[in-house]
Amino acid sequence: MATFSFRPACAFPVWQPVAAVRPAMSAPWWQWVASTDSLTARLINAGGERRFRVRLLRQEVGMPRLDEAQALGIAPRRYAWLREVALCVGDSPWVVARSVAPLTQLQGQHLKRLGERSLGSWLFQQPDLVRGPIEASTCQPRFAYPQDDKARSRWGRRSVFQHGGLSLLVQEHFLTTMADDLGLPSR
Predict the structure, then answer these.
(1) Is it the case that residue 167 has pLDDT exceeding 80?
(2) CB 4 within 8 Å of CB 86
(3) pTM for the model
(4) Which three-class secondary structure state does DSSP give residue 120?
(5) SS3 50
């Protein structure tokens, strides 16, 4: 049974344009981290016959971290909608994700009702969706997530999505459980 833990590896995450970390990343990881299509669809495809599910870890109104507020272009200490999930294939969490959106932009978006439905299943259906540049990091997630001895983050990525007046920061961390299951290299 997985437990929940908070394991900050970096006091302040270092996010860089994905192209800047390309030299340190193997081709198989590049295909995951730099992809601009739906991560949900990729995970379902990679999982084959194994069941894909979203495990809702936390959803609440709270303060975004400073780097999150900066990425969204909002003033620090403004309330935001925060959602943290584990994207699981079979019984293993493969990706943990945190989404942040300014409260002032949430009206009519129905994000609070997602429950254990993938954000990507909603997001990539929006016809006016615009994805900002992808940034990558090797820092561990700065939020609680299910893990065992092997479930550490290999790579993290984030980008800001724009849709109908909504700015939504989506951060995704690819775990070693995914790397092991898919036979991906360490970097």
Answers:
(1) yes
(2) no
(3) 0.89
(4) helix
(5) coil
